[in-house]
Amino acid sequence: MKEHFQLKETIVTISSDEQSHIEAAKEAIRLHRAQLEHYILSDPYFKITLEPHTCALDAPDIVKRLVDAGNAMGIGPMSAVAGTVAALAVEAMVDAGASYAIVDNGGDVAIINDRPVIMGIYAGESPIKDLAFTIEPGDSITGVCTSAGTVGPSISFGMADAAIVFSDDVSLADSAATALGNAVETGRESVEEAFDVVKDVSGIKGAVVIQGEYMGMWGDVPEITRADVRYECITKA
């Protein structure tokens, strides 16, 4: 089962075997978004800063995850918001009994899967097309998060068509994808050098960068296969 769900700026595609698991994800998104919005009322700078930040000791879980992920990469906490919302939604699905649960929050994906999943790679106008990752079954949630300077509305200071990071910490994967994307300029050398920003960060398993005709990989990356990547399946506004 697959459902498209939107709550304000959060636009997700939720996949699972049972409607009850999808409803659990939607309720988690409502809850954690509300907590984040309420916290930002007391700390408006939290929403706009592009630098590491702190939070109150009694801050909601979502806020603490955002701060930890952003600080790990030396950037602002909201760099991790899409991945963190996706992770919290999948955690709620698992608590509801799901062993197959995917939440795609605009290219930031949290997944737990009891069967192989083919996950397409979208890199905008890059000539590198129709490729996908084969995500093998696992018994824990993992993150596959993407940032780009040429695709989508998110803030990026780089020129990546796709900067993808894999981590079991979905919040970290999201912030790291942002930082990786920021580091990509143009050309083969830039793609190679960009991985320096993630290589020494604990918890990051692997990364992929696509920039124009160039594609680079670092670390433990799922098997890449040919696939018919359909634009209409991409989670977007």
Protein model, in words:
This protein has 7 helices and 11 strands. The strands form 2 sheets. Strands 1-2-3-4-7-8-9-10 form an 8-stranded antiparallel sheet. It has a 3-stranded antiparallel sheet with strand order 5-6-11, with no helix packed on it. By secondary structure, it is of the alpha+beta class. The protein has one domain (about 1-230): Roll (T-fold). The longest helix has 24 residues, at about 20-40. It is globular, with a radius of gyration of 17 Å.
Percent helix, as a range, is: 25-40%
Give the low-pLDDT segments. Answer: none
Q: In CATH terms, what is the fold-level topology? A: T-fold
DSSP E strands, number: 11
CATH architecture: Roll
The assigned structural class equals alpha+beta
- Mean pLDDT comes to 93
> Taking strands numbered 1, 2, ... along the chain, how are they ordered across the largest sheet?
1-2-3-4-7-8-9-10
Report how far apart the termini are. 20 Å
- Gross geometry: globular
Strand proportion, as a percent range, falls in: 25-35%
In DSSP terms (H or I, runs of 4 or more residues), the helix count works out at 7
Query: How many structurally independent domains?
Result: 1
- Please trace the helix and strand order, writing H or E for each element: EEHHHHEEEEEEHHHEEE
